[in-house]
Write a structure and sequence with these properties.
elongated; 5-stranded antiparallel beta sheet; 9 helices
């Protein structure tokens, strides 16, 4: 079952990346606004962002997207091949280089060292794209391809990476030989002591990451209120909690049982429950919920 879930997620990543690529690229090519070749455009930031976040799956999606637009626009085999190879080099190259010798295996752009590392990796793969275009598409494509991947990947890619990783706390795909463990992980059940034990573990981990007490109380309140609502509806379930610290706090909550969204206001809830739910929604920056084959998944960004 777990393998089936992974395959479904991979297919969604491939299909979603392909669709986004086509939507962004096809209108530009139809207008004929750019004159540097069909493999150059604003779309060149997509392999940068999607490759770092989605690894080989999103990279494959960008390649399929380039093939689709290339066939629709009748760009020719050489141009399509050049774009596919460049997307592969940028997406997979950045993904491999970023995680190589990385300690946390998280995609973050916060410090000067991280920015420098990103720019050096992007510069290297952009040069490789220039070499590919030289071999496949000819000398005139070398400079436009190299410069576009580098500058578009920098100017547009960096803001998107900050949005996805720092604000929305998107969890990137990590190579199999590595692991990106959460900063704190624990389980909560109907036993009141489990909440206290989990909060104690969370506080110890937060102190090690120099998180302020105000932020600790905020995230603890979100976890406690959400867990209370879940256990009230599903008293026999076990709640798995995983927390990551950063500019924003990411809380992922998984629990098995019937479909139940703790952020949905039921008709039979009393006034106290509605007040706690409103406070919870007010505290959270962003919340998502989905249900897949008997497992409820909640992601809260605080």
């Amino acid at each position: 079952m777990e393998r089936s879930k992974d395959q479904k997620m991979r297919m969604l990543m491939i299909a979603g990346s392909c669709l986004v690529y086509v939507i962004l690229d096809l209108p530009v090519q139809l207008t004929g606004y750019l004159h540097f070749g069909p493999y150059v455009g604003m779309k060149n930031f997509l392999p940068v962002v999607l490759g770092l976040l989605g690894g080989p799956f999103c990279t494959l999606g960008t390649c399929l997207g380039s093939i689709c637009t290339g066939l629709i626009m009748k760009n020719g085999a050489a141009a399509i091949m050049a774009e596919v190879l460049c997307n592969l080099v940028v997406g997979l190259g950045l993904w491999i280089l970023w995680h190589w010798r990385s300690e946390s295996h998280r995609v973050h752009l916060k410090t000067g060292k991280q920015y420098l590392r990103f720019l050096l990796c992007l510069f290297f793969v952009s040069l490789c794209c220039g070499l590919i275009s030289l071999i496949v598409a000819g000398r005139e494509a070398v400079l436009p391809v190299s410069l576009t991947y580098f500058f578009v990947g920098t100017l547009i890619g960096i803001p998107f990476l900050i949005l996805f990783t720092s604000l929305l706390c998107v969890e990137p795909v990590v190579p199999k030989r590595y692991s990106a463990a959460p900063d704190a992980a624990f389980q909560i059940d109907a036993n009141p002591e489990s909440i206290g034990a989990g909060m104690e573990l969370l506080e110890d981990a937060a102190m090690q990451h120099r998180i302020t007490m105000k932020r600790i109380f905020e995230i603890e309140n979100c976890i406690e209120e959400t867990s209370i609502r879940i256990l009230k509806e599903l008293p026999q379930t076990n709640i798995a909690v995983a927390v990551r610290f950063g500019d924003t706090m990411s809380v992922r909550i998984h629990y098995r049982g019937k479909q139940y969204d703790p952020f949905y206001k039921g008709k039979e809830e009393d006034e106290l429950d509605q007040i706690s739910l409103n406070l919870l929604k007010h505290r959270a920056l962003w919340v998502s919920y989905w249900y897949d084959r008997g497992e409820n998944k909640v992601h809260i960004v605080v």
